[in-house]
Structure formats: structure tokens, C-alpha cells
Amino acid sequence: MARYHFVCHDCEAEAIVADRESAAGRRDDHVARTGHEASFAAFVAASDGV
Questions:
Q1: Which residues contact 24 (CB under 8 A, 6 or more apart)?
Q2: From which domain of life does this come (predicted)?
Q3: What is the spatial order of strands in the sheet that 14-17 belongs to?
Q4: How many whole angstroms from its chain centre is CA 35?
Q5: Residue 38 and residue 15: Cα distance in Å, rounded?
Q6: Which of 18, 23, 45, 46 is deepest in the core (most CB within 10 A)?
Q7: What pLDDT shows up at residue 33?
Q8: How many domains, in total, are found in the chain?
Q9: Residue 11: which residues within 8 A CB-CB, separation 6 or more?
């Protein structure tokens, strides 16, 4: 199963979640709190080691 994560380059916050929609929600919440939207890396599918 792939997991998705986002990273904020301004404050190095990171979230790793099981699906893209949850990651998008966490990203949007972080952007709303910090205004760091332009600093986000693209979504990346991460191997869970399986």
C-alpha cells in the first residue's frame, strides 16, 4: 500500500497518511494556519517497505 506525504519547506512540517485526501486535508489545515502554501513539495507516493 502506498502512503502519501507532504513537506512544508518553511517549517519542515511533514505528514504521512494512508491516502491522498487525508494528506490534502492536513496540508490545507497547515496552510490555513501558517500561510506556507508556496513552500509545499508535491505529493510523493512513499513505499511502506512491503
A1: 43
A2: Archaea
A3: 14-17, 3-7, 44-46
A4: 15
A5: 17
A6: 23
A7: 85
A8: 1
A9: 34, 36
Closest by Cα among 3, 35, 40 to 21: 3
Question: So what's the pLDDT on residue 10?
Answer: 73
Q: Residue 5 CB: number of other CB atoms within 10 A?
A: 16
Which cell numbers hold the place of 39?
A: 513552500
First to last CA, the chain: 8
Mean pLDDT by 10 residues, the chain (50 residues): 68 64 74 73 48
